[in-house]
Amino acid sequence: MQLDRVALQLYTMRNHLTTEADVRSTLKRVAAIGYKAVQISGVQAPLSEAELVSICDGEGLTICSTHEGGAGICDNPQAICDRLNKLGCKHTAYPYPHQPLDTIDQVTDLAAKLDAAGKVFADNGLILSYHNHAIEFRKFGGKTALEIIFDETDPKHLEAELDLYWVQQGGGNPATWINKVAGRQTVVHMKDYGVPAGENQGAFCEVGNGNLEWDSLIPLLDKTGVQWFAVEQDQCPGDEFESVTQSFNYLKTKAS
User: Fold this and answer.
1) pLDDT at residue 209 is higher than 80
2) DSSP string of 204-246?
3) Residue in 16, 105, 90, 89 with CA at minimum distance from that of residue 56
4) 16 vs 25, 36, 40, 190, CA distance in Å?
5) Cα end-to-end distance, the chain, whole Å
6) What confidence tens digit (pLDDT) does each residue in 19-73 have?
7) pLDDT range class, residue 199, cuts 50, 70, 90
8) Could you give the domains of the chain?
9) H or E stretch including 60?
10) Can you give the pTM of this predicted structure?
11) Is pLDDT larger for residue 64 or for residue 197?
12) CA gap 83, 85 in Å, rounded
């Protein structure tokens, strides 16, 4: 893992991205921490793609990926492709199911929609990925929904954007899943899985402060073709800037 391939998923900083001034000051601080790339998500300020590119360029930040609305991806994929082209970005991810996944028919229906949308992305020279949570680890006929989604789609049309915290929360094994999608994953989400004192349920924590085995996972991610390592923390215990600084400083010790 090269340090300039460590990105920050901006959803983590969503509370600091409500106005143009917020976006400018936040991205300046993100760059000062050492991040060289960002994934666009959670930006609430009404900025055009050109304005976002200008701000990121001014701070030396590459836009490596985005998250876009699930309905938009499935219903109007060309519009999302046009947005990515304006951002100078080759990759987006379907962030969360926009329809129920309560039956196998619903899962296969979503897979068909994603495959069709992913073909549009591929035809535009772009990449669509699927970002998992724990919900996709529900099983149907002995297979998880996530396995069905990847089995029912062409790897040329849909990649994985594994969120390793949610893999673990869902009962999956992060290393096993990294191997499952080897060669089919450009971006990975890195957040750590902690268990607070007195609790039985996992909680989000800074990379390096939880129980995921990064010493083995990072080399495996490298080996299987991951290009961007996106730090994300859905909820931080205090100041978000402090949390993303801790994660970056930990990953700095693991960079090659």
Assistant:
1) yes
2) EE-TTSSS--HHHHHHHHHHTT--EEEE--SS-SS-HHHHHHH
3) 89
4) 9, 19, 13, 20
5) 6
6) 999 999 999 999 999 999 999 999 999 999 999 999 999 999 999 999 999 999 9
7) confident
8) 3-252 (3.20.20.150)
9) none
10) 0.97
11) 64
12) 5
pLDDT digits (tens, 9 = 90+) for 109-124: 999 999 999 999 999 9
Burial class (CB in 10 A: 0-12, 13-18, 19+), 24: middle
Give the pair of three-digit tokens for residue 1. 């893992």
Tokens standing for residue 102: 């309560």
Q: How confident is the model at residue 201 (pLDDT cuts 50, 70, 90)?
A: confident
CA angle 30, 31, 35 (to 5 degrees): 85
The pair phi, psi for residue 42, each rounded to 5°, is: 75, 10
The number of angstroms, rounded, from the C-alpha of 125 to the middle of its chain's C-alpha atoms is 20
φ, ψ at 67 (rounded to 5°)? -115, 135
Res. 181: pLDDT tops 90: yes
Q: How many other CB atoms are there within 10 angstroms of residue 64's CB atom? A: 24
- In angstroms, the CA 144 to CA 228 distance is 26
Instruction: Please name which of 2, 10, 12 lies closest in space to residue 239, comparing C-alpha atoms.
Output: 12
Distances (CA, A) of 78 to 52, 74, 84, 117: 20, 10, 10, 8
